[in-house]
Amino acid sequence: MTDTITPDMIEALVMGTLDDATAARVEAYLNENPDAADAIDTVFEEDSAIIEAIPTPSPIVVSAPPAPANTNRAPWGAIAASVVMLGLGLSGGWFARQSTETTPEVFAALVTEAVQAHSIYSVDPHRAVELSDEEVLVRWLSNRVGAQLSAPDLTAHGFTMIGGRLLSVTEGPAAQFMYEDEQGRRITLFAVRPAKPSTVMASFEFEEIDGENSFRWEDETLRYAVIGDLEREDLSKIASAVYQHLS
Question: Please, are residues 186 and 122 in contact by the beta-carbon 8 Å criterion?
Fold first, then answer.
């Protein structure tokens, strides 16, 4: 089987153009051969513009949709207004941003894209993730995002990482790590490197969009969001654990 796995097939897997049977073979090969991640790097190094061309089942863009005919349905602008600050007392000294580098609108846009990606992939019973091998996944996504990433261990909170994927969003290549508990509930960790990294850490912010709760924050290198259909208190504990792992 290994003789039949070519760089073109790996590229097709990333592009989402393989049939299910072939995709399963390529995924199995990558999971069994961590060194094969180098082939993925080669594919993208030959044409870095391919990152921007990665398709998604539904566009992940940040723009307000046309006003709905049903006036009882809350518009996206009203949803964004639900942002509230949450003081978690985390070590490391969270504090509110005083700079204008990152506005509330930018944070809202980040969460909108992260939630859209979560909604698309977390419910997929067959191809929820592109890769499941943690070592291969972390190295691949780190190279694509342009910053060292890691997958926090959330087993103490009942969630196990099942894999992840590369996303193409307005700020560039982004990473999505997906976790699942014994009840089948899924949460995702979203990370993207902003065009202009901040020099001031932002405090945790909570937002609810279409039934999905989320926490978001930013450090000197990356912007993060943790999303899931969990109670706010439960998700806050997980977000806190993620932050502690990444800090």
Answer: yes
